[in-house]
Design brief:
There is one protein chain. The mean pLDDT is about 80. The longest helix is centred in the middle third of the chain and has 41 residues. The two termini are about 55 Å apart. By secondary structure, the chain is of the alpha+beta class. Helix content is about 65%, strand content about 10%. The chain is built from nine helices and four strands, in the order ααβαααββαααβα. It is elongated, with a radius of gyration of 38 Å.
Length: about 300
Amino acid sequence: MPDNNTNPDDQISFATLRLSIRYLLIGFFRFCSFIQLVIDKGRFIMLAGFLVGVIPGILYYYQSPKYYKGSMILTSTKLYKKTFADIVEQLNNVSSSGMSSSLSRELNISPDIAKEIRYFDTKNTFDKPLKEDTSTKLNQPFKIVIGLNNADSIARMQEALLAYLNNRPQLKHIREQESLIYTAKLKQLDSELANIDSLKREFNKFLATSKINATVYSSAINPAEIYEQSINLLREREYTQRLLTIENNAVSLLDGFKVSVSTRPISLIRLILITGTLGVMLGFTISFLLETRKKVVQ
């Protein structure tokens, strides 16, 4: 028994929707067939487009200017690796902007050397971007990578980068204050060691002139404790000297710049893929327009 409550408008709407979907599918499959026709008939045009794209790409690759890539390994006792990545990124922004005069002032190098710099980059020991390294450990090695048009200035760039990193205003202030502390501590340790040396000399002199057996000591003084204290002070002095001369720097050089074989901004395979794809797309577009024109004329 038919449902008398069905609205006729609902039946009309459903039929209209079904018809719309049908026409949409028919149009889609016709378009796919047309694309297949364009590819079949225009394959030689697309092949020609591929060659038109690849040949100039290869010529560009072999005629493009070469540059040199240098990498040095550093470590730090003051800042996290990500912080150094941010500092070097700022330098790279100045370099990529083409402001060689600003870069020259920042690094205290000649404008001629600044013009030779192509980019700065930072990596961890696994060659991953240092900016993504969230480690909070200090004394961890990392790399600074530099691209240069001329490798002759690589030694000067190493000196300039080390000086730049170690003399950031806040870091410089920290280093100066720590130097004062470590210098004062060294003086104190030297004074204590001198006193202990004097005590050891007096004690040895006493043993040489005394008739008391050398294995019998007064309860007021034990030579073993004197020598143990002397050894401890020497170890503390060595550690303080290391803090003052080595670990007082913001960064310490582990391995200087090593220049790799000259390279180009992009690999040949990648360049062929890019230019070849653009050529194929150009050929397909031409074929599409030609087939469309035939359909319209007919």
